[in-house]
Amino acid sequence: MRQRPAILIARDVFPAVVERLREHFEVETTPPGVVWSAVEFTERLQDKDGVLTTGGERIDAALLAACPRLKIAANLAVGHNNFDLDAMTAAGVLATNAPDVLTETTADFGFALLMATARRITESEHFLRAGRWKQWSLDLFAGADIHGTTLGILGMGRIGQAIARRGAHGFGMRVIYHNRSRLDAAKEAACGARYVSRDELFAHADHVVLVLPYTPAAHHTVGAAEFALMKPGATLVNIARGGIVDEDALVAALRERRIAAAGLDVFEGEPQVNPALLTVPNVVLTPHIASATLPTRMAMAMLAAENLIGFFTTGQVRTPLNRVSSV
């Protein structure tokens, strides 16, 4: 009888996902709260045929050389900057991710973070909790309007388009966007969005939302030059990836009120946060939770699991990132 493939689940996931994988594989799980170091992760993968990753586990040439049995890595995130796709393709290892299932939930959160940032919700709550609210005043935590303003979206994939629809159709916003490639006319009309140059986006938007994928070329692509272009009353929201924003330049812009406020769900060194960000009041900080609803996180994990099952049973996966030969 053919031995069943061996799978590592790199982080703690829902029991239903584990049980689904155990129907097909020998499964090694990771205890709750444990995050393997790069060395530990490599050691656990050396006798595995597949792995379910969460977006934080790096799959690169060095790991692949040490794990010759590995045939597939299935990310339960849509982002995949933890994968060296060139190295994986060269080694014949398939990469998959989890798009679509988190689009609307992440767009909801992006808009929630935008609203919290513009209306100074976190800053005002801290003020109240500290017992500092003694009287009402006309300008008490007066923030920025969202309805009828200009929303600029950098990165216009599925999530960017979903945010655009919320802004244009729900809040009557003028939506402008910049992307590596322009959307077709039908998609622009559905989003109520207009294509502009990158500099025009930063200069004209009242609220900028970052939804572009992280690549080495995108590292610190938003920094001092971009903040200098923005309006003094503008806000910046990042739900894309840490490293896209130069956080030191952002702190300087916030301190000097060159922009009004920022909302960040992702950080360059996460889970560590740049200590300087904790010293400025006009920033809303959340711990990478844009897709964090129970139905969505379950759908993400199940899609990764089904990609693993499909690869080993039929040679087909739903969301491949590269092309390799199957089993």
Please give the domain count: 2
CATH superfamily of the largest domain: NAD(P)-binding Rossmann-like Domain
| Total count of strands | 12
- Stated plainly, the CATH topology of the largest domain is called Rossmann fold
How far is the first residue's CA from the last residue's CA? 17 Å
Strand-residue proportion = 5-15%
- The tally of helices reads 12
Alpha carbon gyration radius: 22 Å
Structural class: alpha/beta
Reading the helices and strands in chain order gives: EHEHEHEHEHHEHEHEHEHEHEEH
Spatial arrangement of strands, main beta sheet: 8-7-6-9-10-11-12
- Helical content band: 25-40%
Q: Please tell me the CATH architecture of the largest domain by its name.
A: 3-Layer(aba) Sandwich
Mean pLDDT: 96
Low-confidence stretches: none
Identify the overall geometry: globular
Largest sheet: 7 strands, parallel
| CATH class categorisation of the largest domain | Alpha Beta
Account of the 3D structure:
It is a single chain. The chain is of the alpha/beta class. The chain has 2 domains: 6-101 and 294-313, 3-Layer(aba) Sandwich (Rossmann fold), CATH 3.40.50.720; 103-285, 3-Layer(aba) Sandwich (Rossmann fold). It has helices at 15-22, 38-45, 61-66, 85-90, 103-118, 121-129, 158-171, 185-191, 198-204, 224-229, 247-255, 294-313; strands spanning 6-9, 26-28, 50-53, 72-75, 94-96, 150-154, 174-178, 193-195, 207-210, 235-238, 261-264, 283-285. α5 packs across α7 (158-171). The chain is globular, with a radius of gyration of 22 Å. The two termini are 17 Å apart.
